[in-house]
Amino acid sequence: MIQSNRPPIFGMNCTQCGDLLIAPVWSEYEDERHILNLWSCTNCGYQFETEALLPSAKAVSDAATIKAFFPSLLV
Ligand SMILES: [Zn+2]
Q1: What is the mean pLDDT of the chain?
Q2: In angstroms, how far is the first alpha carbon of the chain from the final one?
Q3: In this predicted model, what pLDDT tens digit does every residue of 33-59 receive, in sequence order?
Q4: Which of 14, 25, 63, 73 could form an S-S bond across to 41 if both were Cys, CB 3.0 to 4.6 Å?
Q5: Contact residues for 21 (Cβ-Cβ < 8 A; gap 6+)
Q6: Residues whose CB is less than 8 angstroms from the CB of residue 36 and which lie 6 or more positions away in sequence, other chains included
Q7: How far is the CA of 20 from the centre of ligand 1 (A)?
Q8: Residues, CB within 5 angstroms of ligand 1 (ion)
């Protein structure tokens, strides 16, 4: 089995044959943070869906909290 240790920045590997799929054939926003992508493999014809989660404002503020918290740990 051939596995890439460097996943593509954008794209998916077919879950059936492993062929690289550059872009989803169809995308739908479930809400402001969830994107549903539909992939169709040109190699084997398999279709599958993935869900992408966008970073939220809360995640950004959490990162800022961690940054502010770390210096006190190092003392
Ligand atoms: Zn495939």
Answers
A1: 80
A2: 47
A3: 899 999 999 999 999 999 988 887 665
A4: 14
A5: 11, 12, 13, 14, 39, 40, 41, 42
A6: 27, 28, 29, 30, 49, 50, 51, 52
A7: 8
A8: 14, 16-17, 19, 41, 43-44, 46
Name the amino acid, one letter, at 21.
L
Calpha distance 48→16 (Å, rounded): 10
When computed from its CA atoms, the radius of gyration of the chain, rounded to whole angstroms, is: 18
**Are 17 and 43 spatial neighbours (Cβ–Cβ below 8 Å)?**
yes
Give 30 Cα–ligand 1 centroid separation in angstroms: 25
